Structure formats: structure tokens, C-alpha cells
Amino acid sequence: MSFSSVVLFEQQVAEYFGAPYAVATDCCTHAIELCLRHTNIKSTSCPSHTYVSIPMTLTKLAIDWSFNEETWNDYYQFPNTSVIDAAVLWKPNSYIPNTFMCVSFQYKKHLSLGRGGIILCDSISDKEELIKMAYDGRHRDTAWANQPISQMGYHYYMTPETAQLGLDKLSNAINTPAKKWKWSNYPDLSTMPVFSNK
After folding, report:
1. What is the pLDDT of residue 1?
2. Overall average pLDDT of the 161-171 stretch
3. What percentage of residues in the chain have a pLDDT greater than 70?
4. Main-chain dihedrals φ then ψ at residue 124, nearest 5 degrees
5. Sign of CA dihedral 138, 143, 148, 152
6. Which end of the chain has less Cβ packing within 10 Å, N or C?
7. Best CA proximity match to 132, nearest among 169, 157, 107, 101
8. H or E stretch including 22?
9. How confident is the model at residue 174 (pLDDT cuts 50, 70, 90)?
10. Is 2 helix (H, G, I), strand (E, B) or coil?
């Protein structure tokens, strides 16, 4: 399988956001999960008004977390981390240096691919590590059976077909005004029974 379309998609999205590097994933929640794993986060918080998968991911990773009342616009950063949930952000040259910004391509997002996400970062070593984490602990340019895989991976990679769809739609997304999102577009998760212990 060739991942050339994924590499090109990563390069073009990184260029749009003004980030040195990008790593495409199968969804934004998994992008955030990979960044939290990569940076070894032990405790943080998240807005009570965000997508439901976020606190579920924090719980899944056994991170000590709580809700906060942040009234964010376009993105928010997990406190005491370099990880940013930028799922709804679509703005040129908006990458924040020294962070991991995670953008969504879910069907409601500006670049709508049905599913998909991307991590923007500024370190080549971080990029290479995140690629291996997304691709079952392997490099994507060699068949997995021919590699001495030495680390855990999570099967969270973007398929070439999704990346090609992204390439096909990218120009229109770049030239179309994006919707502005904020905290009030989401319900208060702290009132949901699943999070009653928080």
C-alpha cells in the first residue's frame, strides 16, 4: 500500500496552518489520544463544553482529570500540557509553536471527509514518533512484516483513500469562509450521568 497521498495531504495541511509538520490520523479524538500518550500526561482538565469523546479519552488513559469552565473559541489547550484540541479550527497560519494541535475532518467540520484528523507539530522527532504510534509501531514506508517492531502502536492511521479525498477537497476548503465554533456549540457534559463522578 502506498501512503504517498497521505504524505502529500500532511504537507499541504501543514503548509496551510503554518506548521512545520503534520501527522494524519483516522480521527481527531485519536490524534489527541496519541499526543496525550506521547507527552505522558498524568493530570489535566478539559472544558465541560466540548465533544463527549474527550473526557472519555482522558478516562480511558487513566489520566487524573476534571472539568473546567473555560469559554473557548476555535480551540482550547489542555492545562499543563502542550496538547491543543483544535478540532473545529480552520484558519491559515494559526499553528501555535511548541504545541501539538489536533484538527478534525469529521463530516461536520470545514474540511469534511466523513472521518479523519491531523496532528500539527514543529519537531521532526515528534512527527516520526507519532507516525509510528499511529501505524502500529512501524514505519509506513516498509511492509510491517519486514520491520523489527519495537514499540506499541495504536492503528490510528489515515487511509490513502481518505487522504486523497482530502486533497481533492482542500482547495475549496481553503477558499471558503469557515464557520466559527465556540464552547456554547456544545452541551454541558458535566450534567451527563456518565460523568457523574466528576
Report:
1. 59
2. 97
3. 99
4. -65, -35
5. positive
6. N
7. 157
8. strand 21-25
9. very high
10. coil
Is residue 167 within 8 Å of 145, Cβ to Cβ? Answer: no
Angstrom distance (rounded) from CA 187 to CA 105? 21
Euclidean distance between CA atoms 110 and 130, whole angstroms: 24
Cα angle for residues 84, 76, 30 (degrees, 5° grid) = 40
Domains for the chain: give ranges and CATH numbers. 4-195 (3.40.640.10)
Q: Tell me which residue of 89, 56, 96, 60 sits closest to 75, measured CA to CA.
A: 89
Grid cell digits, residue 1: 500500500
Model pLDDT, residue 17 = 98
Burial of 191 (0-12, 13-18, 19+ CB in 10 A): exposed
pLDDT digits (tens, 9 = 90+) for 32-65: 999 999 999 999 999 999 999 999 999 999 999 9
pLDDT at 2: 81
